Amino acid sequence: MANNRIAFQGEPGAYSHQACRQARPAMDALPCRTFEDVIEAVRAGDADLAMLPVENSTYGRVADIHHLLPESGLRIVDEAFVRVHISLLAVPGTSLETVREAMSHTVLLGQCRGFLRQHGIHGITGADTAGSAKQVAETGNPALAALAAPLAGEIYGLDRLADEIEDRDNNTTRFLVMSREADLTRRSERMMTSFVFRVRNIPAALYKAMGGFATNGVNMTKLESYMVDGVFTATQFYADIEGHPEDENVRLALDELGWFTSSLDILGVYPADPLRITQAQA
Q1: CA–CA separation, 199 vs 236, rounded Å?
Q2: 51 contact partners, CB below 8 Å, separation of at least 6
């Protein structure tokens, strides 16, 4: 049942909300408390799509997300690369000199150390970025500001005292757009395929499993391992490769992978984000 909604985790104005606006501007964004709630909203039909962050260029993968993806029952239909631009947000009429403290998620505080030090502003930890902006708006204290996306300032009626104050100008978060149904019909200049697998319990199984991608010229852009069910002997791997399963070289590589794995689940086939293509050409 289509309802033209895309679910995300966090308060309105979060970077996940920004990702929804960027990737699906015609859809209504549905805020959810947890990643599990986002997934359940799509499963239950309360939303058509889920927007889930999977990794950040500075801080690595988002904790626990790789456990949730294969268990969600959802399929990846797109990826979205979102630049993390950070603004200093305060109640209307506040000057930068008035601000003494800035609240945000601890990760975002760590990305603005230079700016905070330069202006003598003390960072304090909030629940999350958009939640901090909401709290600043509710408190009405001109000495307290929030570090968040410009979108949060728009939503909560805050002034942007400074923009793009992050220490690194290339900080980017990768999101996955997920649906109840897979879409294998699309084709673009560059396609991505994501899957999870477990290797068989034989010597050099992972080495042999990876060999098919090398010999068939398939570029693997990500390979990560994580424990399954909290035991050290059960390891699952998550992988992203360039190409479509119907491409001859990808088909051959996946066939070879099958000989050395006890399970293989393709999570999605989708067009590469334009920023991925730009970075590859740089």
Answers
A1: 8
A2: 6, 7, 8, 16, 19, 20, 23, 24, 38, 80, 175, 176, 177, 178
- Note if 197 is an active site residue: no
Q: How far apart are CA 63 and CA 41, in angstroms?
A: 20
Which of 241, 149, 247 lies closest to 192 in space, CA to CA?
A: 241
**Rounded CA separation 125/8 (Å):** 22
Do you know the residue count of the chain?
282
Per-residue pLDDT of the chain (282 residues), as tens digits, is 568 999 999 999 999 999 999 999 999 999 999 999 999 999 999 999 999 999 888 777 887 787 888 889 999 999 999 999 999 999 999 999 999 999 998 888 988 999 999 999 999 999 889 999 999 999 999 999 999 999 999 999 999 999 999 998 888 999 999 999 998 888 888 999 999 998 887 788 888 889 999 999 999 999 988 777 665 555 789 999 999 999 999 999 999 999 989 899 999 999 999 888 776 665
173, 195, 213, 237: the catalytic one is: 173
Q: Where are the beta strands (DSSP E) in the chain?
A: 5-9, 28-32, 49-56, 60-61, 75-83, 87-90, 101-104, 122-125, 144-148, 159-162, 172-179, 191-199, 220-228, 231-242, 261-271
Model pTM score? 0.89
Is 173 annotated as catalytic?
A: yes
Selecting among 35, 175, 197, 237, the annotated active-site residue is 175
Please state whether beta strands 144-148 and 220-228 pair in parallel, antiparallel, or not at all (unpaired). unpaired
Sign of CA dihedral 110, 141, 85, 65: positive
